[in-house]
Amino acid sequence: MESIVKNREVVLVSYFEGGPVTEHHLTIRETQMDINGCKEGEVAVQNLWIAVDPYIRWLMESPDRSIYFQNYELNQPITSDVVGKVVASAYLGLEVGDMVTGIYQVSEYSIVAGSSLKKLDTRFVKPSYYLGPLGMGGLTAWLGMVLIGNPKPGEEVFVSAAAGAVGLLAAQLAKSKGCRVVGSVGSEEKVKVLREEFGLDDAFNYKSETDWNAALSKYFPRGIDIYFDNVGGGMLEAALNHMKMNARISLCGMISQYNMKDWKESYGVKNLMNLLLKCAKMQGFLVTEYWNYRDEFMEEVRGYMKEGKIKYREDVKQGLDSFCEALNAVYSGGNIGKAIVQVRHP
To answer: Taking every annotated instance into account, which residue ranges of this chain make up the domain Enoyl reductase (ER) (predicted)?
Structure first.
């Protein structure tokens, strides 16, 4: 490979203020990179797959709207979870040809600190799965369902956005623990996929069954033990009306509220008294606060995948030019499974 390579990177040129993400927000910048220009401790990576997650759009907003993470800077490349192949190394722990993952700039090539990367074992799974079931999304699902939800055989589990990257894995983790699992999704196609391909006990289309209280009474006549919440708003309120004694609610995301320009406009849940009356627990969490569980999670989920207890889907778009399309699809519910941009074939 030549030392000087053409490189393309996704750059934030305008803060996001609403509507779909377009080229007015994210643009492709062409540069050159000397892949043999690594300083001591650095590696050059040819990026192959890039994760597309809802939080990316948060980080595209003005810094004065930053909630927890540091927002992206204007005229700088954005970052995400990436899987790539080492093409040059000045770091003792990694060699040319190693497959790695880390959080760094969205581009075709990157030079990053070797210590920030994790070398991947690709003998049993696709490398891109380290962005999904074995990556940050997988850890998120495991934390919310296994660590916080603590499912027990025979319990009743409800997962919203159950065909998404996190919901799909959370639902299957509950099934692997012997629970009865029902998911809510946004299309009849997804209902069919969850029932027939991923083995959920049932699923419903929240866009056609619009009385969510009635829907949950129908699908959970005995009540809900665990609610894995990806959407917030009215669905969370409906779930609170159906919780059993000592129920657990795992607050993973609230995508129904992410389009609000002002957090004061967010949906106000009115029935929190149910938490008190049912001795229930509701807990939010951020995956970045639980990295110490990564090895435990990886061992358990990799084992389930080897046994065929967990299946997975990827929704793959081709090339960096498709990044905006992939991000918008995550917010419109257009994906089943993990949204990924494939930069190039390995």
So the answer is: 62-341
The answer for residues whose C-beta is within 8 angstroms of residue 212's C-beta and 6 or more apart is 184, 206, 234, 235, 238
Residue 210 has which token pair? Answer: 């619009």
Residue type, 217: S
| Cβ contact 194:161 at 8 Å | no
Q: Which two tokens stand for residue 88?
A: 């040059």
- Report the domain count for the chain: 2
Whether pLDDT at 180 is above 70: yes
Host domain of residue 145: 136-289
Hey, what are 196's tokens? Answer: 């027939």
User: How many other CB atoms are found less than 10 A from the CB of residue 2?
Assistant: 8
Q: Tell whether 317 and 178 lie within a shared domain.
A: no
Q: Where are the alpha helices (DSSP H) in 252-293?
A: 273-277
Give 85-101 pLDDT, tens digit per residue: 999 999 999 999 999 99
Yes or no: say if 83 and 130 are a contact pair by the CB < 8 Å rule.
Answer: yes
In a domain, 304, yes or no: no
